[in-house]
């Protein structure tokens, strides 16, 4: 399942990537280009734009995102498409590409010395080369994510 988020859904796209969803997003792209690329790449369009949603070309190939707030938006996605925790943090947040595991020795010169000595597992983005590891940033994102979902319970 692949997605293309419209220009109003940057935050949603980022958090979906954190959760491992395949989501394309570009901050400045026009509707025609979103439609062209989504159809070409077999992506479901996520949109808040009623005009875009009315376009005939995307009939049956879009999800209208109802909520104004990130939490509601993520809930809508998860209710519809599910969520797999083992896919969390497996994707580059910048490029949307799947990360690949890299051996520790390969990142010696690319990460801070403290990180190198305290971490054992690293992964890298095959597109931009950014290196990812477990640690405070990851912990922080997981906490934010659980908050986003806990707050939603009961409403
Ligand atoms: Zn990347």
Write a brief caption for the model.
The chain has helices spanning 10-18, 31-41, 50-53, 70-81, 113-118, 136-150; strands at residues 2-5, 22-25, 44-47, 62-64, 100-102, 122-124, 131-133.
Which small compounds were modeled alongside the protein?
zinc ion
Number of helices: 6
* Helix coverage percent: 25-40%
As laid out across the biggest beta sheet, the strand order is: 2-1-3-4
Q: How many E strands? A: 7
Gyration radius from CA atoms, angstroms: 17 Å
Uncertain segments of ≥5 residues (pLDDT<50)?
none
Q: What would the average pLDDT be, to the nearest integer?
A: 92
Give keywords.
6 helices; 155 residues; binds zinc ion; 7 strands; 15% strand; alpha/beta; single chain
């Amino acid at each position: 399942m692949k997605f293309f988020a419209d220009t109003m859904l940057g935050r949603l796209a980022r958090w979906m990537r954190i959760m491992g969803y395949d989501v394309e997003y570009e901050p400045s792209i026009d509707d025609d280009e979103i439609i062209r690329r989504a159809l070409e790449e077999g992506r479901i369009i996520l949109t808040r734009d009623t005009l875009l949603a009315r376009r005939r070309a995307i009939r049956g190939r879009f999800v209208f995102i109802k909520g104004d707030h990130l939490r509601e938006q993520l809930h809508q996605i998860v209710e519809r498409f599910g969520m797999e925790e083992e896919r969390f943090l497996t994707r580059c947040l910048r490029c949307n590409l799947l990360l690949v595991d890299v051996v520790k020795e390969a990142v010696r010169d690319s990460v801070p010395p403290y990180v190198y000595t305290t971490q054992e597992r690293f992964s890298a983005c095959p597109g931009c080369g950014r290196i990812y590891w477990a640690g405070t940033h990851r912990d922080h994102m997981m906490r934010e994510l659980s908050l986003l979902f806990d707050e939603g319970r009961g409403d």
